[in-house]
Amino acid sequence: MSSSGDGTAVGGPYPLHSGSAEHSPKRPVAVPEGTSGTESQAVDPEREQVGYRGPTACAAAGITYRQLDYWARTGLVEPSVRAAGGSGTQRLYSFRDVVVLKIVKRFLDTGVSLQNIRTTVQHLRDSGFRDLERTTLMSDGATVYECTSPNEVHDLLQGGQGVFGIAVGVVWRDVEAALSQLHGERIDTGETLVGHHPADELARRRNRAV
Q1: Which of 23, 19, 28, 49 is nearest to 149 (CA)?
Q2: Which residues are CB-contacts of 178 (< 8 A; sequence separation ≥ 6)?
Q3: Residue 165 belongs to what H/E stretch?
Q4: Cα–Cα distance for residue pair 186/201, rounded to 1 Å
Q5: Cα–Cα distance, 117 to 122 (Å, whole number)
Q6: pLDDT of residue 144 exceeding 90
Q7: Helix, strand, coil shares of the chain as percentages rounded to 5?
Q8: Residue 131 φ then ψ, to 5°
Q9: What is the CA angle 98-185-68, rounded to 5?
Q10: pLDDT tens digit sequence for 72-108
């Protein structure tokens, strides 16, 4: 990894520092066979129609409701489906929101500062969470780096900069497994979808209605 002289990394992996959302360079990402180079991380279309209330998001991400509430109020991880709008309304989180919650939890557990975590989450948000499952987030405790290929991870470790890493794909699958056993809510109707894969249950109901 080299530097452009202005603090911006040239060539992956890239440090996610303050202002990185403005300066992070664009780069090609390895795409599996059978997919196009412009395809974003695929999420089951049915899952996009399912939201998760605060207690469910907490259970899947392994955090407390106090953490969830604080992160939402301070803008660290806000619910993208529905914010709390006063008495009687509850926050509703998307699948990706819960993945980010679990990533934040992992970073906190390893001692990364909240400021660096906030910068990382903002970077992921600005990039539209593209290729999220194929991303590895590495940190030396002071800086968080984004890697999207095994070579980038190797280069970072060889340079002595990466102390630990979070394979987002593993977090993705962990959240997927946890939410499959919990209740979801249809975004369009508010109907509760009982556990055991709420997104699959929604698909089955729609198929029966056809």
Answers
A1: 28
A2: 59, 60
A3: strand 164-167
A4: 10
A5: 9
A6: no
A7: 40, 15, 45
A8: 55, 35
A9: 35
A10: 999 999 999 988 776 667 899 999 999 999 999 999 9
And the tokens for 113?
Answer: 């500062």
pLDDT of residue 202: 54
Q: Which long-range contacts (CB under 8 A, 24 or more apart) does 179-182 make?
A: 179/52, 179/56, 179/60, 179/95, 179/98, 182/52, 182/56, 182/59, 182/60
**Bridge partner residues of 144 (DSSP):** 16, 139
| 187-205 pLDDT, tens digit each | 888 888 876 555 555 555 5
CA nearest to 12, candidates 167, 141, 146? 146
Instruction: Give the burial class of 210: count Cβ atoms within 10 A of its Cβ; 0-12 exposed, 13-18 middle, 19 or more buried.
Output: exposed
Phi and psi, residue 94, nearest 5°: -85, 170
Tokens representing 184? Answer: 């979801």
Q: Are 184 and 196 in contact (CB under 8 A)?
A: no
Largest CA distance in the chain: 60
Q: CA-CA distance, 116 to 89, in Å (whole number)?
A: 31
3-state SS assignment for residue 120: helix
* pTM to 2 decimal places: 0.71
User: Would you state the torsion angle of the CA atoms of residues 72, 25, 106, 134, taken in this order, to the nearest 10 degrees?
Assistant: 110
Alpha carbon distance 177, 34 (integer Å): 25
Tokens of 33: 């066979």
